[in-house]
Amino acid sequence: MAVTLEEARWLGWILVKALMRFAFMVANNLVAVPSYICYVIILQPLRVLDSKRFWHIEGIMYKWLLAMVASWGWYAGYTVMEWGEDIKAISKDEAMMLVNHQATGDVCTLMMCLQDKGMVVAQMMWLMDHIFKYTNFGIVSLIHGDFFIRQGKSYRDQQLLLLKKHLENNYRSRNRKWIVLFPEGGFLRKRRETSQTFAKKNNLPFLTHVTLPRFGATKIILSTLVARQENGNPAGGDAKELDSKSKGLQWIIDTTIAYPKAEPIDIQTWILGYRKPTVTHVHYRIFPVKDVPLETDDLTNWLYQRFIEKEDLLSHFYETGAFPPLKGHKEAVSREMTLSNMWIFLIQSFAFLSGYMWYNIIRYFYHCLF
């Protein structure tokens, strides 16, 4: 099939734009990530003197870095429409997000839509596949205290023990408030067949838009972070860090991500921007953690029910282009999430100026020493 001159020009422009965006992304990383590391190193004395203030400053820089990643999609026309309950109302409480997982773009989507939720991003801990440790952002996540989990039966028990220890050592000591978990344990396209086979063997619902979740990480998080009362004293992991002001984990945010025509965005598309502008839709439902069972069987059933509901939500979305209204409401209400162009400009300017400053400082000391 012959390509017309107009199509050739359009393809050429897409290629040029992708190359320009890739070059900017590389430059962005070369100044922002090393600058973040340098600031963290220079602030180590503050970490000893005032740990809480240190992690507050680190969290702000972390939020700015995630905003830069969000901006790559924003300027490509990849925006977010939010549905369901308003999670801004609980942005100062401790919460866990349970998110369906379709592609690497899910993480970028959350980085974008959580930017306007106060200090949530700064005080957030991510649980992500260990492969992300080896990306350009891996060193930042390691410093921030995110947890990288290895998939597979042979690693499962060991990883859960490591997760519990990580939460006890890092969650409240670094003043974390929210934790993000993808309970399916992998991308939809990779796990769907296995999940459906398991469902058939165990007389469970046949799901196509999501997969049956794994309960291990969820159980560890709940048992470690939920404040319990036993003989008048806080119980559960990290109890020594649970001061009188902390109420422990209070909310579960059931988060459902939907892409038009069920075509998810991957990280390559987010960076290069070769796909046409797309609106990703994110639906929230909030559950009080006190209503969530902790016993293994009951928790597993509770999680299965949430993902069965996700299946219904996504089926409705793919049929109608919108999520259904919340229970007790006649109409579904959507909210367009926006990023401030001025704010993005300011943090990008700060990143490039910081990169220039640290380059000159390091070059000066290099010449002094050598």
From TrEMBL:
Pfam families: Acyltransf_C, Acyltransferase. The keyword Membrane applies. The keyword Repeat does not apply. SUPFAM superfamilies: Glycerol-3-phosphate (1)-acyltransferase. It comes from the Eukaryota. Residues 95-219 form the Phospholipid/glycerol acyltransferase domain. The chain crosses the membrane at residues 20-42, 54-75, 131-149, 343-366. Keywords: Acyltransferase, Lipid biosynthesis, Lipid metabolism, Membrane, Phospholipid biosynthesis, Phospholipid metabolism, Transferase, Transmembrane, Transmembrane helix. This is Acyl-CoA:lysophosphatidylglycerol acyltransferase 1. It comes from Galeopterus variegatus. The gene is LPGAT1.
